Amino acid sequence: MAAIYIHVPYCKTRCIYCDFFTQTNTSSKTGYISAVAKEIELRKDYLGKEPIKTIYFGGGTPSQLSEDDFKHIFEAINNSFEVIPNAEITMEANPDDLSESYISMIQSLPFNRLSIGIQSFNDKELNFLKRRHSAQRAKDVVKLCKQAGFDNISIDLMYGLPNQTMDIWMNNLEEAISLDVQHISSYHLIYEQGTKLFKLFKQGEVMPVAEDMSVDMFSVMIDKLNDAGFEHYEISNFAKNNLYAKHNSSYWLGEKYLGLGPAAHSFDGQNRAWNIASISKYIAGIDNKNPDIEIEYLDPTSQYNDFILTGLRTMWGVNLAEVKNRFGDKMLTYCLNNVQRYVDQDFVKNENSILKLTREGIFISDGIMSDLMYIK
Questions:
Q1: Is the pLDDT reported for residue 131 higher than 80?
Q2: Which of 1, 22, 24, 43 could be disulfide-bonded to 53 (CB atoms 3.0-4.6 Å)?
Q3: Nearest in space to 249 (alpha carbons), one of 267, 266, 234
């Protein structure tokens, strides 16, 4: 089975840390919606007729779309693909957009999972990040969504912000736990080139938190969320009651996915592809039935490296039998030789020929993954 991702490139305002392809001018939205529907028809064979098990509206801010916008896209998907019963269908949303009437509207659509971009329960942090909502609004919105019948809700949290103390971070975690959501994704703030945050950093107006503080925050998060009943199933993701993000898990498990919209990425099981990062050029290419898409053809070495990188991030790990079957004895030997020192040091465990990071290994995961990569 396969997945579909729809990139919504519109935001009401732009957060200072965001480097995703988005814009605040929505004048092109009608043309964009039409183009996405046409792209679905043009690329319906990309996934090889596999049934669709997840659909994910990401962004940007999908909660900037209207009921008619969503219906147009869902109709196009159902006309071109077989969507399995009870498919996971997720919408990312900004708390400020989720009024009672908007929640009621999306509840009437096929959505059965919400991913709400909260980031912090501290108003000073939210103001610094240029988020549109307040901490209280975020808490109220989660309660409204639960009252409307949504029982698979994920929230995003961010740590490692400038001037963020451990007390602030602990409070953010406690507030998140108290909401009794099913999933939490948490990411360290990154200073991406081209963002307003990066400019502030280069000008000396903000400073990243110390590395030891970042490590302590990550450690505290693991412990508190585990104690609250969350399973740490991927480096940045935690779930209750096996409600893992099925869509994102398809990326980590190497499954096929089709990305729709400008700058959206796709994977056909062998090669990667991505749409042009321009709304006008994207629409023009689709209208001319010649999508502006770049393709990266992955050789066996690149496929092996991807397999290691994505597998080690998860609790499911790297299956050594699959390494042998897919990449041969040479790559299996290379992998085993390079991982052994981490096994000896209890950073990686080998359980029934499946390599998994230990709790201690998670903290040096980048180095472990790098050492297992095959460099020609």
A1: yes
A2: 1
A3: 234
